[in-house]
Amino acid sequence: MKNAERIWDLVDQRRADYQDLSDRIWGMPELCYNEHRSVAEHKAMLEKEGFRITEKVAGIPTAVMGEAGEGGPVIAILGEYDALPGLSQEADVTEQRPMPGDGYGHGCGHNLLGSASMLAAAAVKDWLAENGIPGRVRYYGCPAEEGGAAKAFMVREGAFADVDVAISWHPAAFAAVQEAISLANTRIDFTFKGRASHAAAAPQLGRSALDAVELMSVGVNYMREHMPSDARIHYAYLDAGGIAPNVVQAQAKVRYLIRARELPELTDLIARVKKIAEGAALMTECTVEHRVLSGVANLLGNAPMEKAMQAALDRLGPPPFDAADQARANDFQATMTAADIAAAWRKVGLTPKPGLGLTDQVVPADAKGAPMVGSTDVGDVSWVVPTVQARGATYAIGTPGHSWQLTAQGKLPAAHKGMVHVAKVMAATAVDTLRDPSIIARAKEDLAARTAVTPYQSPIPEGTEPPFGMSVSI
Predict the structure, then answer these.
(1) Is there a contact between 41 and 446 (Cβ–Cβ < 8 Å)?
(2) N or C end: fewer C-beta atoms under 10 angstroms in the chain?
(3) Quick check: 394 and 419 in contact, CB under 8 A?
(4) Residues 347 and 369 sit within 8 Å (Cβ to Cβ)
(5) What is the mean pLDDT of the chain?
(6) DSSP letter at 58?
(7) What is the mean pLDDT of residues 400-408?
(8) Which residues contact 436 (CB under 8 A, 6 or more apart)?
(9) Residues contacting 242, CB < 8 A, separation 6+
(10) Alpha helices per DSSP H over 132-262
(11) Given the DSSP bridges, would you call strands 387-393 and 165-172 parallel, antiparallel or unpaired?
(12) What pLDDT is stored for residue 390 in this prediction?
């Protein structure tokens, strides 16, 4: 208990610097693989803290790693700092009001994510030095979580090969240990090529690539009835072939995002979608090419690490939100629907408390929620390193993910308090793990048991390079 309290003191000593870092990252939102200013800010903070720095981790220009300590086990704390398109928003405003500029915004809270993770790593660094305990802590600054699968490429290149355990978190409405459920996914671009012609004078000479894309959509929609109920398929038109309806479209391009609960299921679905694309090309006498951009594995849980994190969270208690924080959260809740708020409570398995804007409790380990399942490249790390994630309470209950409301709350006092709170949870988990080597041993046994039947296989095809241009060029 006393050791955990000391690590919390070390976190508190730095809180102002890392709140400022988070706010700076909020003010420079950058999309996947283009986080050049954000990674420069993180690198500068690592230098200030005295970490040993590795730039361009796994050959990725916007990935960075800082290490401190000597010998002993290696504890990785994972951070992110990429933003999203279309979610620009003025801070602390309860109506949709985009900022001037490119339209990017931190609508998933990654400005907080990276800052809290580095804050935790810096506190552990000092704790190691104070106590003279062998061990190393690493902060991994990971770009491109939103679609670019950077951690999956980092895993493939061996960036975590000597890591003993990995710790991370994500902004949320409640303080909890994250249930290890996510969907494996892959992003694939399908490019159809046909033949242009005058759509009125000589339509028989044309072969429409746009027709092929639309037929592919029909085929995939019919397939939805015959795939696992928890699988998901989404798509976006990248090139509809032009804006002239009197020209038969000679080229069209569509991006598919295919998700499944397990990697083997994902592999099967990908094969089926490719067959549909080939069928659409055959029906229209076009050709089709596909290019895999990225892919991520589903999350694997780790019971010993989850137990250790829950213990740290229970010792710490809920975030210290005050009446002013609660009142401002209620203002934001007024912009949400009753369904949004109910879904947030249902997700964590807690009984709703009407009128409560911010959480006032820690989610118990035995709470039975109904998580809304997405995807994350932390999944790939979890297949090769025992991994645990926290949920950090940083925004009003009911705030939709990837929304302007979430962007607007990213610099509020409540966001800062939640960020520091979850940094304490991660740092205490790391300290407990360093002080008790049996946690690491049990965590590794747990991972070995989970992967014994189905070993890790990267969802990214061999030879595929990180899609550095996917945010700026299609």
Answers:
(1) no
(2) N
(3) yes
(4) yes
(5) 96
(6) G
(7) 97
(8) none
(9) 249
(10) 150-156, 209-223
(11) parallel
(12) 98
SS3 content of the chain, % helix, strand, coil (to 5): 40, 20, 40
Q: What is the pLDDT of residues 169-206, one digit of tens each?
A: 999 999 999 999 999 999 999 999 999 999 999 999 99
Instruction: Sort strands 74-80 and 52-55 into parallel, antiparallel or unpaired.
Output: unpaired
Task: Please name the residue that has the structure tokens 């019919």.
Answer: 222
Q: Output the CA–CA distances (angstroms, integers) from residue 98 to 95, 191, 292, in the order listed.
A: 9, 33, 33
pLDDT of residue 371: 74
Q: Is 90 exceeded by the pLDDT of residue 4?
A: no
pLDDT in tens, 133-171: 999 999 999 999 999 999 999 999 999 999 999 999 999
Q: Crossing angle of helices 303-316/2-12, nearest 10°?
A: 70
HEC profile of 254-322 = EEEEEEECCHHHHHHHHHHHHHHHHHHHHHHCCEEEEEEEEEECCCCCCHHHHHHHHHHHHHHCCCCCC
Confirm if 210 and 241 have CB atoms less than 8 A apart: yes
Residue 2 has pLDDT above 60, yes or no: no
Residue 342 has pLDDT above 50, yes or no: yes
pLDDT computed for residue 1 by the predictor: 40
The predicted structure's pLDDT at residue 5? 87
* Residues 319, 323, 325, 328, CA torsion sign: positive
Closest by CA to 38, choosing from 140, 143, 128, is: 143
Residue 474 has pLDDT above 80, yes or no: no
Q: Are 84 and 8 in contact (CB under 8 A)?
A: no
Helices assigned H by DSSP within 80-132: 110-131
Enter the tokens of residue 93: 């405003």
Per DSSP, the residues of 372-434 read PP---THHHHHHHS-EEEEEEE-S-TTPPSSSHHHHHTTTSHHHHHHHHHHHHHHHHHHHHHH
Distance CA 74, CA 125 (A): 12
User: Six-digit token pair at 369?
Assistant: 């929620």
Structure confidence at residue 473 (pLDDT):
37
Residue 314 CB: number of other CB atoms within 10 A?
Answer: 13
